[in-house]
Amino acid sequence: MRVLIVEDEPNLGRQLRSTLEGAGYAVDLATDGEDGHYLGSTESYDAVILDLGLPEVDGLTVLDRWRREGRRMPVLVLTARDSWSDKVAGLDAGADDYLAKPFQTEELIARLRALIRRASGNASSELIAGDIRLDTRSGKVTKDGEPVKLTAQEYKLLSYLMHHKGKVVSRTELIEHIYDQDFDRDSNTIEVFVTRIRKKLGADVITTIRGLGYTLDDPEDKRA
């Protein structure tokens, strides 16, 4: 899953980026409103962490522009302001959640996971497809109750497909959501990761839809 952080405090921005990358996210970082608005308008993100007190263009304006442009990614507003009026303004501008500084990174990550789950129609933190379970809190994957070790990129790809279970996901969409902006993107690596996941979880766990992409379904749905 890919996340955009728009935060002008250098230390906090770097800390958040490092923490989220350690949690398995692909992360881009913008340090002012102009760059943040541009990335949010031109790139694909599963969620955004947006500071309100930004230079160049303030966070509320950035958020309002995104929503007017039809950008629907969930946005977690992050700010030092803690008055009820600022919270209302952020939510009215299109924010999906609100967290005031200072905060615990564990809470931020938990809120981020919840936003991404809700945006993809998943209520539980545990994603299930047949005998495969992916725990978004711990990052652990099991098959028939047995732990399965995946690389970081394999986990990102499986997580994205399980968040969008039953939907056909194109190779381009996978590339946009499992790599950050600076990563050297190669569409051929997607097939490599899919092959590796099939070897670890079963040949039929991911179905290739020729000319369209990939889909992950419950075994019961496939039989139906």
Automatic annotation (TrEMBL):
**Which protein, by its recorded name, is this?**
Response regulator transcription factor
Which positions does the record tag as DNA-binding? 124-218
Which domain of life does the UniProt lineage start with? Bacteria
Question: Zinc: is it a keyword of this entry?
Answer: no
**Swiss-Prot/TrEMBL keywords:** DNA-binding, Phosphoprotein
**Residue positions where 4-aspartylphosphate is found in the record:** D51
Q: Does the keyword DNA-binding apply?
A: yes
Query: What are the OmpR/PhoB-type domain coordinates in residue numbering?
Result: 124-218
Record InterPro entries: CheY-like_superfamily (IPR011006), OmpR/PhoB-type_DNA-bd (IPR001867), Sig_transdc_resp-reg_C-effctor (IPR016032), Sig_transdc_resp-reg_receiver (IPR001789), WalR-like (IPR039420), WH-like_DNA-bd_sf (IPR036388)
Q: Which Gene3D superfamilies match?
A: 3.40.50.2300, 6.10.250.690, Winged helix-like DNA-binding domain superfamily/Winged helix DNA-binding domain (1.10.10.10)
Q: Which residues form a coiled coil?
A: none
Q: Which Pfam families match?
A: Response_reg (PF00072), Trans_reg_C (PF00486)
SUPFAM superfamilies per the UniProt record, alphabetical: C-terminal effector domain of the bipartite response regulators (SSF46894), CheY-like (SSF52172)
The Response regulatory domain covers: 2-116
